[in-house]
Every structure is written in C-alpha cells, then in structure tokens.
Specification:
Largest sheet: 11 strands, antiparallel
Structural class: mainly beta
Distance between the termini: 47 Å
Number of helices: 4
Shape: globular
Radius of gyration: 29 Å
Strand content: 35-45%
C-alpha cells in the first residue's frame, strides 16, 4: 500500500523498583526538650519523647508495566501516528496513612509499604508535516492521554468501627482512598440548594431541628427518621482529582527568516477542592471578599447561604452552613493553557558572515500567558495538599508564573 510509508508494532514488559522517599523519611526522631521528674525529692532529669515514627521494614515499590504500541508514517511521511496502550501495577506502594497523635507521631505520618495500585490507559500522538513549496513552512502535532487508576488492595487496616467489617479504605481529610476506586476521591456530603422557606425545611425534615430559610440543604442519604439526621453516614463519593483526559497541541511555522511556535496544554474532567474558598466564604474569622452574595428574603437567587458568624454559639444552622466536608467547595478544574509562544527572527547569513558570526537569532517568548478555566482559585494546575491521598485539594498553592522573556542567540 503506497500510502503507508512505515508501520511498526511494539510490545514490552518490565519490572522496576521505585523509590519515592525523601531524605530521612525512613528514620524516626525524638524530641529532647521535655524534662522528667522522679523520686520523692522531685529531681529533674533530661527527658525525651518520641516525635516521629518510622517503619523498620520499608522497601522500594515494585512497578510492573505492560505496553503495546503502534508507530505509523503515512502519505509519504507527512502524517505520523503513535499509539500506546499500557497497564502498570505497583505493589508495596509507599503511602502515609493517617495515624493518631497518641501513638507518638507528632511530625508526619510515617511511610508504609501497603497495598497495590493499577494504572491503565492510552496515549495517542498525531503529527502532520505537509510537503510545501514556497517560503512558508508549517507543521502541527497533538496528543491525548487517558489514564485510569484503581486501588487493588490496601493491606491490613483493621476493622471498620461503623460496619464491623475489615476496613478497605484510608480517609484523609475530605478524600477517601478505597479498594476498587481511584486514589483520593472526594467523600463528602452532597448539597441540594438552599431552603427558601419553612415549608421546605419541614418537608425535608432531616434538618428541621435547627435550619432556617437561607440555610444549605444537605442530601439525607441514610434516612434515620429524625429531625437532626445529617451526619458523616450521609457522605457520598463526589468526583476525582484525576483528569478524564489531558491533551496538548504544538504548532510550528516559518516564513523566510521569521519563526513562530505555539504550545497549548489542557486537562479536562477533574474536580478540585477549593480549600482557600472554604476559608474565605465560611463567614469565619477572615476578611469577606467582595463577591459574596448572601441569601436574604429579598435575594433568593443565590448559592450563598444567609450571613452569620461561622462560630455563632446560638445558631446551629449557620454552623452547619460552614461545613468543610461538603461538595459546596468542589469545583470543575478543567483548563486550557497557552503554555508557550515564541516569535523569532534569524538574521540572514550574508549579513552576519562579515562579522564572523555563523548564526544570530533574536526572539521573544511568553510562558503561561493565559488560562481558560471556570475554576475560581488562583491556578487549576493543583499539586495537592497531600499528593498521595489528597491530590486535588487546593490549599493555596502558588500559581504558575507568567513569564515574558527576550533573547539573543549567537553562534560563532
């Protein structure tokens, strides 16, 4: 077939040891500040308490990966296709499960080799470079990546006190990592608008012991039949911090001595927990931002509850409106970013050769010039408060810098 210039199938399997520990994460520590008092004379002796626990049995993670791929060049090498299908399983994964402070763990939760995690997905790269006559040349390349992760096991976590069954999850803040689901999914109460009048409160019943018009209505997932029935048992899974897919696009062009390069990157379908917004809009001890729009009898078309001090001692409804473990603070984190653009000019050889210069190029470039997103935080490209267990929690990470630079490249 003349339209196929090159075609190759690939396959591979490998096992790799992975070390994700930082320096000294495998070492415990003592706090030698406290003193101890002994004996009838109440004599003071230098003392110490355990401040950080460390596992004595830490080892590297073991990651096995299977990959199938296809490489093709079509239509006289003008169109390039690369497709990869992969599946990897990580065993003895290094995770910091939360431990209570009374165990002597006062600094960081210690790493442990627990559980197994599967990642599978595909990566598709497409490129097009037309064979053009004339002085204008261009090419374009794009890619899309789809990755799904699933927790296969979490080791022995004891017994779940709520169900009496073996515990199969790790709760970290408002996220839950559970066997059979992806890492760090949000596990929170689901909101259902705002009570507009007493009749709606009475019909809902589960919050009628304290709610007032203007309060947030929570979904009563487990109906206990009481008028004060919203609790942790009503929490549900509410999305993942991992994108449904990521994509990139790069365009290169040249006209005579000018060149232009544009690079776009996007991530789509992920959910982010805006912890900064939770702190600002809970009506607590922070400054209230200008954009708040509290519910009032004359202002019912709003998503903000009625105004009141978060820690009010005599208004339970206000206290409940400020809950952190709800989907009120979860937002769509999808974004498209102009990651890089560069415009350059290469001086003609006949002009610079007289100065014994082989090449001279002047350019201006911009990085992160704009981002298209509905996310209300500073930057949707969130690292996570705890990258292992809370990958999508935005607690105020510094946004990507917008950089404009000028340069001159000289070759002799």
């Amino acid at each position: 077939m003349d339209w196929i210039s090159d075609l190759k199938l690939r396959g591979s399997y490998g096992v790799l040891g992975v070390n994700t520990l930082d320096a000294y994460d495998y070492i415990g520590s003592l706090n030698q500040a406290p003193d101890a008092v002994f004996g009838s004379g109440q004599v003071t002796y230098p003392g110490a308490i355990q401040a950080k626990i460390a596992s004595e049995d830490l080892k590297w993670e073991e990651k096995s990966t299977t990959n199938l791929g296809l490489d093709a060049a079509l239509f006289n090498d003008q169109f390039i296709v690369n497709l990869d299908l992969f599946r990897s399983v990580s065993k003895d994964v290094l995770i910091r499960p939360p431990l209570p402070g009374y165990l002597g763990n006062l600094i960081d939760n210690p790493y442990q080799n627990i559980g197994s995690i599967q990642n599978k997905g595909l990566e598709l790269n497409l490129g097009y470079r037309p064979k053009l006559d004339g002085e204008f040349k261009w090419d374009i390349a794009g890619n899309i990546s789809i990755v799904r992760n699933k927790v296969l096991s979490l080791g022995n976590l004891g017994i779940d006190t709520e169900t009496g069954q073996p515990k199969d999850y790790i709760q970290s803040g408002n996220t839950r990592t559970q066997v059979g689901r992806s890492i760090g999914e949000y596990y929170v109460l689901k909101t259902d608008g705002i009570f507009q009048n007493q009749a709606e409160i009475n019909a809902h019943k589960a919050q009628s012991a304290y709610a007032k018009p203007g309060d947030i209505r929570y979904v009563n997932t487990i109906d206990g039949g009481t008028n004060d029935d919203i609790n942790d048992k009503d929490r549900v899974f509410a999305g993942s911090a991992f994108p449904k897919f990521t994509s990139g696009l790069q365009f290169n062009s040249r006209y005579k001595d000018f060149s232009l390069t544009i690079q776009l990157y996007g991530a789509f379908g992920q959910k982010l927990y805006n912890d900064v917004l939770r702190d600002l809009d809970s009506y607590g001890n922070s400054n209230y931002r200008r954009a708040i729009n509290p519910w009032t009898p004359g202002n019912t078309d709003t998503t903000f509850p009625r105004l009141g001090y978060q820690f009010a001692a005599n208004d339970r409804g206000i206290n409940e409106n400020a809950r952190g473990n709800t989907d009120r603070w979860i937002e769509d984190g999808s974004f498209l970013r102009l990651r890089n653009v560069e415009l350059g000019y290469s001086f003609p050889q006949k002009l610079i050769s007289k100065a014994n210069i082989s090449s001279l190029r002047l350019y201006v470039s911009g990085q992160n010039l704009f981002t298209i997103t509905k996310y209300s935080g500073l930057d949707p490209d969130v690292v996570g408060a705890n990258p292992n267990l809370e990958p999508g929690v935005d607690n105020g990470n510094y946004p990507s810098s917008r950089i404009i630079s000028f340069g001159l490249s000289v070759g002799f």
